[in-house]
Amino acid sequence: MPFHIVLLVLFAALLHASWNALLRGGADRLWSMTVMCLAVAISSAAIALFLPAPAQASWIYAVLSAVLHVGYNLFLVRSYQVGDLGQTYPISRGSSPVLITVAASVFAGERVGMAALLGIALVSGGIVSLAFKGRRLAVPSLPYALGTGCFIAAYSVTDGIGVRLSGAPMAYTAWMCALWGVLMPLVYIALRGVDSLLTIRPGFGMAFTGGLVSLLAYGIVIYAMSGAPMGAVSALRETSVLFAALIGYFFLGEALTVRKMLACAVIAIGTLVIG
Fold this sequence. Notes:
single chain, mainly alpha, 12 helices, 80% helix
Protein backbone atom coordinates (compact mmCIF):
# COMPACT_ATOMS: atom_id res chain seq x y z
CA MET A 1 0.00 0.00 0.00
CA PRO A 2 1.48 3.44 -0.91
CA PHE A 3 2.84 5.30 2.10
CA HIS A 4 0.79 8.44 1.43
CA ILE A 5 -2.39 6.32 1.52
CA VAL A 6 -1.35 4.90 4.89
CA LEU A 7 -0.83 8.41 6.28
CA LEU A 8 -4.14 9.65 4.85
CA VAL A 9 -6.12 6.76 6.34
CA LEU A 10 -4.43 7.20 9.74
CA PHE A 11 -5.45 10.87 9.63
CA ALA A 12 -9.01 9.76 8.79
CA ALA A 13 -8.86 7.44 11.82
CA LEU A 14 -8.07 10.38 14.09
CA LEU A 15 -10.96 12.37 12.62
CA HIS A 16 -13.29 9.40 12.99
CA ALA A 17 -12.47 8.89 16.66
CA SER A 18 -13.01 12.61 17.27
CA TRP A 19 -16.55 12.75 15.88
CA ASN A 20 -17.49 9.51 17.66
CA ALA A 21 -16.33 11.06 20.93
CA LEU A 22 -18.48 14.11 20.17
CA LEU A 23 -21.48 11.84 19.58
CA ARG A 24 -20.84 9.73 22.69
CA GLY A 25 -20.54 12.85 24.84
CA GLY A 26 -23.84 14.35 23.64
CA ALA A 27 -27.02 14.27 25.75
CA ASP A 28 -29.42 13.34 22.91
CA ARG A 29 -27.34 11.20 20.57
CA LEU A 30 -30.03 10.59 17.96
CA TRP A 31 -30.55 14.35 17.59
CA SER A 32 -26.78 14.93 17.49
CA MET A 33 -26.33 12.28 14.81
CA THR A 34 -29.13 13.79 12.74
CA VAL A 35 -27.59 17.26 12.96
CA MET A 36 -24.30 15.73 11.83
CA CYS A 37 -26.12 14.26 8.84
CA LEU A 38 -27.65 17.64 8.00
CA ALA A 39 -24.12 19.07 7.90
CA VAL A 40 -23.07 16.19 5.66
CA ALA A 41 -26.04 16.74 3.32
CA ILE A 42 -25.53 20.49 2.95
CA SER A 43 -21.76 20.35 2.40
CA SER A 44 -21.92 17.29 0.12
CA ALA A 45 -24.62 18.81 -2.08
CA ALA A 46 -22.61 22.03 -2.40
CA ILE A 47 -19.50 20.07 -3.41
CA ALA A 48 -21.40 17.79 -5.83
CA LEU A 49 -22.62 20.77 -7.87
CA PHE A 50 -19.05 21.52 -8.95
CA LEU A 51 -18.11 17.94 -9.85
CA PRO A 52 -18.93 15.77 -12.87
CA ALA A 53 -21.58 13.13 -12.26
CA PRO A 54 -20.24 9.67 -11.43
CA ALA A 55 -20.76 6.87 -13.96
CA GLN A 56 -24.29 5.51 -14.18
CA ALA A 57 -23.19 2.02 -13.06
CA SER A 58 -22.16 3.38 -9.66
CA TRP A 59 -25.47 5.04 -8.72
CA ILE A 60 -27.16 1.89 -7.41
CA TYR A 61 -24.23 1.45 -5.03
CA ALA A 62 -24.46 5.06 -3.87
CA VAL A 63 -28.16 4.67 -3.06
CA LEU A 64 -27.63 1.32 -1.30
CA SER A 65 -24.73 2.75 0.71
CA ALA A 66 -26.84 5.73 1.80
CA VAL A 67 -29.53 3.37 3.15
CA LEU A 68 -26.90 1.23 4.91
CA HIS A 69 -25.40 4.35 6.48
CA VAL A 70 -28.77 5.21 8.04
CA GLY A 71 -28.93 1.72 9.55
CA TYR A 72 -25.39 2.20 10.84
CA ASN A 73 -26.36 5.54 12.41
CA LEU A 74 -29.34 4.04 14.25
CA PHE A 75 -27.36 1.07 15.57
CA LEU A 76 -24.44 3.29 16.61
CA VAL A 77 -26.69 5.68 18.52
CA ARG A 78 -28.39 2.78 20.27
CA SER A 79 -25.08 1.15 21.23
CA TYR A 80 -23.82 4.42 22.76
CA GLN A 81 -27.02 4.79 24.79
CA VAL A 82 -26.18 1.68 26.82
CA GLY A 83 -22.38 1.33 26.53
CA ASP A 84 -19.15 3.27 27.05
CA LEU A 85 -17.10 4.58 24.12
CA GLY A 86 -14.20 2.40 25.30
CA GLN A 87 -16.31 -0.79 25.10
CA THR A 88 -18.77 -0.23 22.26
CA TYR A 89 -16.35 1.38 19.82
CA PRO A 90 -13.81 -1.52 19.82
CA ILE A 91 -16.49 -4.14 19.12
CA SER A 92 -18.10 -2.29 16.23
CA ARG A 93 -14.82 -1.18 14.68
CA GLY A 94 -12.80 -4.34 15.43
CA SER A 95 -15.25 -6.73 13.83
CA SER A 96 -15.53 -4.82 10.55
CA PRO A 97 -12.06 -5.33 8.93
CA VAL A 98 -12.40 -9.13 8.94
CA LEU A 99 -15.99 -8.91 7.65
CA ILE A 100 -14.90 -6.48 4.94
CA THR A 101 -11.98 -8.69 3.87
CA VAL A 102 -14.30 -11.68 3.47
CA ALA A 103 -17.04 -9.69 1.72
CA ALA A 104 -14.56 -7.98 -0.62
CA SER A 105 -13.23 -11.40 -1.59
CA VAL A 106 -16.72 -12.74 -2.30
CA PHE A 107 -18.31 -9.71 -4.00
CA ALA A 108 -15.33 -7.83 -5.48
CA GLY A 109 -12.90 -10.67 -6.16
CA GLU A 110 -10.17 -9.13 -4.01
CA ARG A 111 -7.23 -11.25 -2.91
CA VAL A 112 -5.14 -10.04 0.02
CA GLY A 113 -1.56 -11.16 0.64
CA MET A 114 -0.52 -13.09 3.73
CA ALA A 115 1.26 -10.10 5.29
CA ALA A 116 -1.84 -7.94 4.93
CA LEU A 117 -4.02 -10.73 6.34
CA LEU A 118 -1.71 -11.00 9.34
CA GLY A 119 -1.89 -7.24 9.84
CA ILE A 120 -5.69 -7.24 9.59
CA ALA A 121 -5.90 -10.08 12.13
CA LEU A 122 -3.60 -8.23 14.55
CA VAL A 123 -5.54 -4.98 14.22
CA SER A 124 -8.95 -6.63 14.63
CA GLY A 125 -7.82 -8.85 17.49
CA GLY A 126 -6.19 -5.96 19.31
CA ILE A 127 -9.26 -3.78 18.85
CA VAL A 128 -11.77 -6.37 20.07
CA SER A 129 -9.58 -7.18 23.09
CA LEU A 130 -10.09 -3.60 24.28
CA ALA A 131 -13.69 -4.45 25.12
CA PHE A 132 -12.84 -7.34 27.47
CA LYS A 133 -13.02 -7.04 31.24
CA GLY A 134 -10.79 -9.74 32.64
CA ARG A 135 -11.68 -12.82 30.60
CA ARG A 136 -15.24 -11.77 29.91
CA LEU A 137 -16.68 -9.70 27.09
CA ALA A 138 -18.97 -7.62 29.32
CA VAL A 139 -20.62 -5.22 26.87
CA PRO A 140 -24.30 -4.37 27.59
CA SER A 141 -24.72 -3.10 24.03
CA LEU A 142 -23.05 -6.14 22.36
CA PRO A 143 -25.86 -6.94 19.86
CA TYR A 144 -25.98 -3.32 18.71
CA ALA A 145 -22.19 -3.03 18.61
CA LEU A 146 -21.91 -6.16 16.45
CA GLY A 147 -24.79 -4.94 14.30
CA THR A 148 -22.93 -1.66 13.83
CA GLY A 149 -19.87 -3.63 12.69
CA CYS A 150 -21.98 -5.50 10.13
CA PHE A 151 -23.36 -2.23 8.75
CA ILE A 152 -19.81 -0.83 8.54
CA ALA A 153 -18.72 -3.87 6.53
CA ALA A 154 -21.77 -3.68 4.26
CA TYR A 155 -21.48 0.00 3.36
CA SER A 156 -17.68 -0.15 3.08
CA VAL A 157 -17.74 -2.94 0.50
CA THR A 158 -20.66 -1.29 -1.30
CA ASP A 159 -18.70 1.96 -1.53
CA GLY A 160 -15.50 0.14 -2.47
CA ILE A 161 -17.25 -1.35 -5.50
CA GLY A 162 -19.21 1.81 -6.29
CA VAL A 163 -16.23 4.15 -6.24
CA ARG A 164 -14.29 1.89 -8.60
CA LEU A 165 -17.20 1.93 -11.06
CA SER A 166 -17.78 5.66 -10.72
CA GLY A 167 -14.70 6.95 -12.52
CA ALA A 168 -14.81 9.93 -10.12
CA PRO A 169 -14.16 9.10 -6.44
CA MET A 170 -14.87 12.62 -5.15
CA ALA A 171 -18.14 12.91 -7.07
CA TYR A 172 -19.28 9.47 -5.90
CA THR A 173 -18.49 10.38 -2.30
CA ALA A 174 -20.31 13.71 -2.53
CA TRP A 175 -23.50 12.27 -4.03
CA MET A 176 -23.61 9.25 -1.73
CA CYS A 177 -23.11 11.41 1.34
CA ALA A 178 -25.73 13.90 0.14
CA LEU A 179 -28.27 11.06 -0.17
CA TRP A 180 -27.33 9.68 3.25
CA GLY A 181 -27.48 13.14 4.80
CA VAL A 182 -31.05 13.61 3.53
CA LEU A 183 -32.32 10.16 4.50
CA MET A 184 -31.30 10.34 8.16
CA PRO A 185 -33.31 13.53 8.95
CA LEU A 186 -36.34 11.95 7.26
CA VAL A 187 -36.03 8.95 9.57
CA TYR A 188 -35.68 11.29 12.57
CA ILE A 189 -38.81 13.23 11.57
CA ALA A 190 -40.73 9.95 11.24
CA LEU A 191 -39.65 8.97 14.77
CA ARG A 192 -39.94 12.31 16.60
CA GLY A 193 -41.54 14.90 14.33
CA VAL A 194 -40.18 17.92 12.48
CA ASP A 195 -40.45 20.32 15.44
CA SER A 196 -38.02 18.24 17.47
CA LEU A 197 -35.46 18.37 14.68
CA LEU A 198 -35.72 22.11 14.03
CA THR A 199 -35.40 23.11 17.69
CA ILE A 200 -31.94 24.58 18.22
CA ARG A 201 -30.40 23.13 21.37
CA PRO A 202 -27.05 23.44 23.16
CA GLY A 203 -24.44 21.47 21.26
CA PHE A 204 -25.84 22.25 17.79
CA GLY A 205 -22.60 23.86 16.62
CA MET A 206 -20.50 20.98 17.92
CA ALA A 207 -22.73 18.38 16.27
CA PHE A 208 -22.72 20.29 12.97
CA THR A 209 -18.92 20.48 13.10
CA GLY A 210 -18.80 16.76 13.87
CA GLY A 211 -20.73 16.11 10.67
CA LEU A 212 -18.16 18.01 8.61
CA VAL A 213 -15.35 16.09 10.30
CA SER A 214 -17.08 12.76 9.60
CA LEU A 215 -17.54 13.70 5.93
CA LEU A 216 -13.85 14.49 5.53
CA ALA A 217 -12.85 11.28 7.32
CA TYR A 218 -15.02 9.01 5.18
CA GLY A 219 -14.14 10.86 1.99
CA ILE A 220 -10.49 10.01 2.63
CA VAL A 221 -11.39 6.35 3.21
CA ILE A 222 -13.40 6.09 -0.03
CA TYR A 223 -10.53 7.69 -1.94
CA ALA A 224 -8.14 5.13 -0.44
CA MET A 225 -10.44 2.22 -1.34
CA SER A 226 -10.48 3.32 -4.97
CA GLY A 227 -6.98 1.92 -5.39
CA ALA A 228 -6.11 -0.15 -2.30
CA PRO A 229 -7.55 -3.40 -0.83
CA MET A 230 -10.74 -2.68 1.15
CA GLY A 231 -9.85 -4.90 4.10
CA ALA A 232 -6.43 -3.31 4.55
CA VAL A 233 -7.85 0.22 4.31
CA SER A 234 -10.55 -0.70 6.82
CA ALA A 235 -8.02 -2.14 9.27
CA LEU A 236 -5.94 1.04 9.08
CA ARG A 237 -9.05 3.17 9.57
CA GLU A 238 -10.01 1.17 12.64
CA THR A 239 -6.79 2.23 14.35
CA SER A 240 -9.08 5.08 15.35
CA VAL A 241 -9.63 3.03 18.51
CA LEU A 242 -6.15 4.09 19.58
CA PHE A 243 -7.26 7.70 19.39
CA ALA A 244 -10.65 6.83 20.92
CA ALA A 245 -8.94 5.22 23.93
CA LEU A 246 -6.89 8.36 24.51
CA ILE A 247 -9.87 10.68 23.98
CA GLY A 248 -11.96 8.55 26.35
CA TYR A 249 -9.21 8.74 28.97
CA PHE A 250 -8.41 12.45 28.75
CA PHE A 251 -11.85 13.91 28.01
CA LEU A 252 -14.55 11.38 29.00
CA GLY A 253 -13.08 10.06 32.27
CA GLU A 254 -12.70 6.46 31.04
CA ALA A 255 -9.93 4.18 32.37
CA LEU A 256 -6.71 3.49 30.42
CA THR A 257 -5.48 0.15 31.78
CA VAL A 258 -2.37 -1.94 31.09
CA ARG A 259 -4.58 -4.28 29.01
CA LYS A 260 -5.67 -1.37 26.84
CA MET A 261 -2.09 -0.22 26.35
CA LEU A 262 -0.97 -3.74 25.34
CA ALA A 263 -3.90 -3.99 22.93
CA CYS A 264 -2.93 -0.65 21.43
CA ALA A 265 0.61 -1.97 20.92
CA VAL A 266 -0.77 -5.00 19.03
CA ILE A 267 -2.88 -2.67 16.88
CA ALA A 268 0.17 -0.52 16.11
CA ILE A 269 2.17 -3.62 15.06
CA GLY A 270 -0.67 -4.70 12.80
CA THR A 271 -0.73 -1.23 11.25
CA LEU A 272 2.99 -1.43 10.50
CA VAL A 273 2.57 -4.87 8.91
CA ILE A 274 -0.23 -3.59 6.65
CA GLY A 275 1.71 -0.45 5.78
